[in-house]
Amino acid sequence: MSPASPKFVAYLRVSTARQGRSGLGLEAQREAVQRFVAGRGGRIIAPEFVEVESGKRNDRPELAKAIKRCRLTGATLVVAKLDRLSRNAAFLMTLRDSDVEFVAADLPEANTMTVGVMAVVAQHEREAISARTKAALAAAKARGRHLGGRRPGAADITRYQREGVQAAQEKAAERLRLVSDDLRRLRAEGLSLRSIAARLAEESIQAPRGGLWTATGIARALRKLDEG
C-alpha cells in the first residue's frame, strides 16, 4: 500500500455488553469498514475502537479515543453504520465538534456537514437556548460600548490580535495535551530525541503544525510537559 494512500481509523459500536463479548454484529461492521476502506484505496492505521454502548450513557470513551487518534495522525474516522446512530445526539454532537474528517460505510455521502445538520436537529432546543443567550450577551455588550463612549479603531484591532494569539496558544496547548501520553511513553523507553521523532513518524502522529516532528520540537514539547 502506498504511503500516500488515505488513512482511516475505524470505530465500531454494539448496544450491549453481551454483544461486545460475543462479537455479534461486530464482524459485519468490521467487514463493511474494511471493504469500504479498500474500495477507497486506503488503509486502517490504528487498531479499531469498539464502543459497548448503553442507551443510558451519554459519554463515548472509545469514540473519544478514535477521534484523538484521527487528530494525531490526520486520518479520517470511519464507522460501519450511521443509520442506527442518526438519532443519537451525544454521538452526533461529538462528531460535529471533533474537527476530524468523517465517513460512514453504509452512507458514503454523509460527511461532517451532514452529521452537523443531524446534530442541530437532534439538539434543536439546546441550540435555540444557546442562540438566545448569545444574542442577549451581544446586545448587552453593544449597550455597554455605547454608554461608555468607546470608539472603534486601534483598540479593537489590538483586542482581535490578542484574541487571535490566545486562540493559537490554546490550540497548541490542546495539541500538546493530545500527544502528551505518547511523548511520555517514548521518553520512558529511553529513546533519544531523534528516535522519538522517528517513532512518532512511524505511528503517523503529526507535529502540532502538521508534518514530521524534529528533535528540537520534541525537546520543546517535553520541556513544556515538565513545566506544566
Question: Can you describe this structure in just a few lines?
Answer:
By secondary structure, the protein is an alpha/beta fold.
Question: Any overview of this molecule?
Answer:
The protein contains nine helices and five strands. It has helices at residues 17-22, 26-39, 61-73, 89-96, 112-122, 124-148, 154-188, 193-202, 215-227; strands at residues 7-14, 43-44, 49-52, 76-79, 102-104. Strands 1, 2, 3, 4 and 5 form a five-stranded parallel sheet that branches. Helix 8 (193-202) crosses helix 9. The longest helix has 35 residues, at 154-188. The protein is flat, with a radius of gyration of 22 Å.
Main sheet: strands, sense, barrel: 5 strands, parallel
Radius of gyration: 22 Å
Low-confidence stretches: 146-151
Q: What fraction of the residues are assigned to beta strands by DSSP?
A: 5-15%
Number of helices: 9
Structural class determined from secondary elements: alpha/beta
Q: Name the helix and strand elements from N-terminus to C-terminus, one letter apiece.
A: EHHEEHEHEHHHHH
Distance between the termini: 40 Å
